[in-house]
Each structure stands twice: as C-alpha cells, then as structure tokens.
Amino acid sequence: MTTTFSVEPGGSLRGDLRVPGDKSISHRSIMFGALAEGRTRVSGFLDGEDCLATLSAFQAMGVPIERPERHTVTIDGVGLHGLREPQAPLDMGNSGTAMRLMCGVLAGQPFDSVLVGDASLGRRPMRRVTGPLAEMGARIDTGEHGTPPLHVHGGQRLRGHRHTLPVASAQVKSALLLAGLWSEGETCVTEPAPTRDHTERMLLGFGYDLHRDGRRICLQGGGRLRGRAVEVPADISSAAFFLVGGSIGEGSDLLLRHVGVNPTRTGAIDILRLMGASIEVLEPREIGGEPVADLRVRSALLRGVRIPPQLVPSAIDEFPALFVAAACAEGETVLAGAEELRVKESDRIQVMADGLSGLGVRCEVLPDGIRIQGRGVLEPGTISSDGDHRVAMSFAMAALRARGAIVIRDCDNVATSFPDFPGLAARAGLEIRVT
Ligand code: S3P
Fold first, then answer.
1. What is the mean pLDDT of residues 413-426?
2. Of 22, 317, 388, 410, which one is the catalytic site residue?
3. d(CA 164, ligand 1 centre) in Å
4. 26, 103, 217, 373 - which has most CB atoms within 10 Å?
5. Is the pLDDT of residue 17 over 90?
6. How much is the mean pLDDT over the chain?
7. Ligand 1 atom closest to 343 (CA)
8. Residue 221 Cα distances to 18, 108, 188, 305, angstroms
9. What's the total number of domains in the chain?
C-alpha cells in the first residue's frame, strides 16, 4: 500500500509557518561534520529520509552521530582520514545528492565501498560524476547504463584536476570538490552557469581554504576541516509549494519564516514575480554564512511567461510547483533549456504534463521543457506522482484552484524531503486527507 493524498477543492492558505530544514545544507552538514575534527552540532536539520540516508552511511563508516531531539544532530567528526570500511552496501534510498556527493567522498578512501539506492535512483545517470572523478584517478564501476549500483575501489591515489563541467550541476561540482580534499595538488571546477554554492560556503565555514574566481572554484588537497555549529535555514524548495499555493489560492496571505534565500536558489521567487505574484522578502539577514528571510505571499492573478533561461539552474527543483502556477495563470508559459528535469526523481517534464493533462490543462512536451496553456480553473482528477515527492506536493496545491477534489497516488516519497507536509499544509488551510 502506498500513501494517497486527497485534497478538497478551493480555499486559501493563511497564517504563519516554518517549513523544514534545507535538504542540500542538511546533507552537507552531516558530510562535513563527519569529516571535520571535533564536534559539529546541527540545528534545524531536515529529518527526512534522504538526509537520514546520508547520516546512516556515515554511521556505517564509524562516525559517532546522535539525534538528541527532533531537527538536531551532533556529530563527533573523525577527520579526513578517520572513516572506516562499511560492512555492507551504503543505501542512498531516493537521494541523488547523497549518492553523487558520496562518490566524491569515497573515491579518496583506502577501502572499497558499494552505493545502492531505490528504483528511481537506480535509473539516474552517474557517469557525470564517475567520469570526471576518473580523471582524478578514481575507480568507480557503474551499472551497464551508467546507473547505480556503484562500486568504488579504494586505495587509489587521487590527483587534482581542472574540470570544466558540461552540465550546470551542484552535485557534480560538489563531488569533485569533495574528492579534491584527498587529492594531490589543486582541484578546480568551472561551471557553465552558477549553481547552488552551499558546498563552497560550508567548506569555508568549516575552515577550509577555497578560492572563487567568477565561475571557477579551486581548492588544494591535504587541508583539514574543523567542527562547528550549523544552523540550517528552512528549505526554499519546500517553501515553493506554499509560494505557489499562496499565489493561486484566492484570499491567501501566508508568512513563511526563516527561509534560505541564497541567490543561487531563488529563481522560483523571480519567476513567480515575473508571472505577477505578490511575494515580499522581509527582514533579510545572514545566519551561519547563508542568507535567510521571511517570505510573505498573497494571492495574485498570474500570467503566463517565457521563463528566462538564466533562471533555470536557480529554480531547478521548483519547476513542478511552477508548472502548477502556470496552469492556473492567464495565457501561455514556455520553459526551454531544462532537459535536466528529465533525470530528476522522475522525468518531471513528462510526469507533470501527464498529470496536468488529466486536470484539463493543455500542455506540449518539448525535448528540454514544456509549453503550458493556463486555464485559470482546473478540473478534478486522480494523478500518479510516479513516486516523485515534488510532483505529489505540487498537485496537492493545485487543488486550491480546482473545481473538484484532486487525488494524488504514490505519495510515500514526500517523506524524503518534507515529512509533515500534509500536517503543515492543513494548518495553513489546505483540505488534505492522507490514506
Ligand atoms: C542539489 C543539486 C541539484 C538539485 C538537487 C540538490 C544539491 O541537482 O536538483 O535536488 O544539493 O547539490 P543537480 O546538481 O544535479 O542539478
């Protein structure tokens, strides 16, 4: 049996809430905390399945990690040379971030290891990481199609390398920088467009020297990380469902507290504003090296837009939610240059197009994007999320503008990034039932 969300039509989102911690920063807090010397205390940690997979992997490599209370983790770091050989394959569950970043960590270890994941992760491309790591001297075997499971051969001597990435990917960039920690000499990564820079900010925060020059990031191997306190802001990718819901639900007025607004992540705010959304960024401040703010969203009449290609990397995880906004807008929305969406937890272009079509929305699937004809009001319907957490939560919000109930099947994986989504959404006013 899998989880189903049934959402009654109409209504608005109101009040004041804090969505869970940032997934990207939570993964990295465990990784850097484990590899640092001394204690790291993480608050605001996302206790979702993806980050818990990372946490379990480091425990399996001998790192003492405790969870004294919800959203809090303490890690007694073992240093860059203190990991122990895991006794079983490391299960990364549904998490591409965990698997790709772990490749960078494991490539430089003296022991062999195996990385596995669920059916969705088992279909995701890994050569984008294993290829450039091989240029540094790493040996990682993939499955036949470049997919997991991955066999990482330990005991390799890694050498720094100058990488130029063909795809804008923070995961690939991060894996290479991580491998650079155990490499001789300098590792540099040049990205084609800016992607989320949490790895760079956190390396600096953990006391590691790193240089940025435009789109190039360089570090020397052989340094040390020092344990520290990490405060994880609320995840803008989780806030995005509420930004869309608050925009399309008539009479909505919602305050989202303490949201991470790192400029490499705020594309969804920019795109929604282009569409006519009313989103205010209040009390901007900086916490632990990351910009944070409260976001106030009020309902607004949205219009279709051509999404500027330069905003794609900074909104990459928010497109399922943005497609729902586009379906409720007046006129056409066009997205191109986003082929990456096809290799996320699902093929997010096809799965969203199928779901929206089921709600009466005309969509044209493009090789690298989608064309959506907004229709203001959606028809009722039943949708499969294809096991994709962000698809499930996006369609839950779509009910705010539907003529009848929307039922979403296959919602188990919402727990990977947003364990209490139904509870929080209900508190804000969504009439959601979980069976
Ligand atoms: C992430 C990077 C992005 C994003 C993912 C998290 C990260 O992936 O989609 O959810 O934490 O580095 P890509 O780097 O593959 O675009």
1. 98
2. 317
3. 18
4. 26
5. yes
6. 98
7. 15
8. 38, 11, 11, 45
9. 2
